[in-house]
Structures are given as C-alpha cells and as structure tokens.
C-alpha cells in the first residue's frame, strides 16, 4: 500500500538516495542543509511516497507568493521523481495529486512546471496539456479558479 504524506526532517536518510538517484545533487551535506530549511519553510512543500516502509518517490513544490500588482500566487513544481522499479504503479500520479491539492489549498492561482519530454504523456494522462512553446522542456500550467 502506498502512503503519500508531507516530508519531515527524519525522512532525510531515506530521501537522500532518491535525491542522488535523480541526479544533479552537489553533495550530501549541503543538500541536507537545504532540505532542513525547506522542510521547515512554509513556502516549500516536499511530499514523499512510501510503499512497504520504503521511500519510493518524492515531489517538491515552492510557493512563490503573491504577485505585487495582481495579488495572484504562483507555485512551481520543481521535482517529481519515482525510483525506476516503482514506476507505472501510480506513485507519481498520487504524489502529483497530493502536491496539486496542497497548492490549491494554499491559494495558488497558477501551478507551473517544465517537464522532461519523456514525461509529457504522463501529464497528459492526468489531464494536463503542455503549453505551446519552443523550449526543450515543455511548459505546463494549471490555473485554479
């Protein structure tokens, strides 16, 4: 059974292998310090997926706050990652929906992200189409009413 929940500081040792597996992490110590800051910062939300007591995926979004002139809020999806051996089991979908729900409940106007080209079909299955653009990494946006 999959449990999706907000990450807590004690998740670090189980989360680090996912972060390093995803790539582009500088080093464990600096990443740990950033993690502690973010997991305790109301503008960052890190969700984890746990299956049979093993951490198998995570997602991270950041609340950019309200726009000065419009009073509307943008939240950015930075990461959505599932260990390869747990893909196609619904983990990423559950994580994404959990993050989307958090954004909606936190007065977000727009949830935005760029995805790798290989993830486009995944987001389409969730009912989100990429915006038309020429970028190598397609842009997605959900507008909450």
From TrEMBL:
One of its GO terms (molecular function) is acyltransferase activity, transferring groups other than amino-acyl groups. Keywords: Transferase. The keyword Transferase applies. Pfam families: Acetyltransf_1. CDD domains: NAT_SF. Gene3D superfamilies: 3.40.630.30. Coiled coil: none annotated. SUPFAM superfamilies: Acyl-CoA N-acyltransferases (Nat). Residues 2-145 form the N-acetyltransferase domain. It comes from the Bacteria. This is GNAT family N-acetyltransferase. It comes from Ornithinibacillus caprae.
């Amino acid at each position: 059974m999959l449990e999706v929940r907000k990450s807590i500081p004690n998740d670090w040792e189980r989360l680090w292998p996912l972060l390093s597996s995803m790539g582009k992490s500088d080093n464990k110590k600096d990443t740990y310090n950033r993690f502690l800051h973010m997991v305790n910062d109301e503008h960052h939300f890190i969700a984890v997926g746990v299956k049979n007591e093993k951490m198998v995926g995570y997602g991270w979004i950041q609340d950019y706050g309200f726009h000065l002139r419009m009073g509307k809020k943008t939240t950015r999806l930075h990461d959505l990652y599932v260990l390869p051996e747990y893909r196609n089991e619904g983990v990423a979908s559950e994580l994404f929906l959990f993050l989307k729900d958090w954004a909606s409940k936190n007065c977000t106007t727009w949830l935005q992200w760029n995805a790798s080209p290989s993830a486009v079909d995944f987001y389409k299955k969730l009912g989100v189409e990429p915006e038309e653009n020429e970028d190598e990494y397609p842009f997605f946006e959900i507008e909450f009413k």
